[in-house]
TrEMBL record:
Pfam families: Ank_2 (PF12796), Ank_4 (PF13637). InterPro entries: Ankyrin_rpt, Ankyrin_rpt-contain_sf, SecEffector_AnkRepeat. It comes from Phytophthora rubi. This is Ankyrin repeat domain-containing protein. It comes from the Eukaryota.
Amino acid sequence: MAAPPPLSSAHVVCRAQPRLAPLKHVTAAVSSFLDYSARWSIESACARAGGADGVSLRLLERIAAHRAAADSQSFRAKRQRDVFHRQWEFTRAAAAAATRGDLAAFKWLVAMFPECRVTVAVEEAAKAGQLHVLQWLLDKSRRRELTVFWGAKELFFAGKHGHLHVAQWLHEHTSPPPTHMFFVTLEEAARNGDLDMVTWLCDVRGEWSPYAAVLAAGGGHLQVLQWLRTNLFSSSSSSISMDDAAAGGHLDVLCWLQDHSGYATHGAMNKAAARGHLEVVQWLHEHRSEGCTSDAMNFAAASGHLDVVQWLHDHRDEGCTTDAMDGAAKHGHLDVVQWLEANRTEGCTERAMDGAAANGHVAVVRWLHDHRTEGCTTAAMDGAARSNHLETVRWLHDNRPEGCSSAAMSLAARNGHLEVVEWLHEHRTEGCTTDGIDLAAAKGHLEVVQWLNTHRTEGCTSGAMDNAAAGGHLDVMRWLHEHRKEGCTTAAMDNAAAGGHLDVVQWLHKNRKEGCTIAAMDRAASGGHFDVVFFLQCERAEGCSAKAFVNATASGELEILKWLFANHRERLGRDRLRIYALGKFYILQWLKMEAGADEREAFMGEVNALAQG
């Protein structure tokens, strides 16, 4: 089929040059250069802003035109015809449109994929509070113009995200399932302090969970806590821990729990101290008997809460350990370090300077050097180099004898800190190992890889290309392919497949001979990378193992699982899929209704056995 018509912008450019205006092939070439729609997926187009003014629809139409123009024998065209891949593509795109409330894009998708059913989009619309999308879907499903799956986790998501009007509508017009053991809407509403949602869920939906009160207390939602204890639980209900409320600094909740069967552990004061809630620490000291441990001062010091440290020193006798100064130094709290030095006797360890150096707190490093004798280890310069703190690296080099290890340059290379790598090369003798290029390649730092190749002699291993593939760094892989001889292993394509990097998988297939293993498809299935799975099926012969079925089930990838049943049923092992499918509503429904009778009977027997057990 013909390519889509030239972009308006291409016409404008060519018309500005009278000699070019009549040359249609020039306009087409300019349009091809400017047109990025062929690189967009339908899902990404539905996820972008602009639905209100038709931008999304224009982009979708252009993407569709490019798809229609694809060679019928190409991988792309075969993928577009596959019924499972079409459903997968529709599901993801519809979810994106539903999240944004873009009903126009949703209608376009339904017209483009008329055979597909709506699943996850229902949940996404509920999650985002897009009631008009849900209303349209219900109307279409009642007219039997569209197959829509209701009864998954849409009410749970509406409740979790505070959309009471959506939850009420779902309850009135659909048949939401009762509370699921793994998805308790009441608990999420209590955690969020949404009293209106809590009362509706209890009064109308009949939800109940003793843990809801615990979550309300931990979040500092006193009104919700009081309502739950008054209306949902009897006075003999189990008591509630104060620890999380203390950690959050919720003194009003603590006071109320003190009079209503609350209990605490020493973790309450420890956590309050760590968060700097001095008023809570003082209240616990006066009203509770659990006390604290040395972790209270240790954590407070590490977090820089000097006022809490001082109060604990004056009013408690647990004290601290060397962790206090070590932690304070690591996080750059020089005032705390100095106070501990002047008022406590525990001191510190070499981890103090190591941690301070790694985080670039050169002032703390200098102070420790001048006032303490513990010193540091090579971890100090290694850590500073890793985190790009060149000033600290220089200071340690000039003032300390410990030096560094080869990890300094290797870790700096891994994180792309070329200036640090260059400085270490010029001023230190430790050098690096093959980890230098290997790690830099893994993170996609091509400039560092090139510099190390030019200035160092360690080289790399096949791990460089293997791990670059895992990160989808095709530019690094091409360079290594052209300039190094180590090559890669099957792990390269396996890793790229696991990460969903189709361009890398395709390049490896075309340019390298190592190939892949069955792990490629297995891991692609786990990540929901159907494009990669389909390419491997079309272009390679390794196939998959039984792990692919388990991975797709555990990840909730229904369409990939259905595709595996259709194309690799012989690879299905004896894994008890029910262990991985619990909570995966769409997969459970399909396995019950559409799988073969033998698989269905065995599967549902296992599910029922688990429910009864």
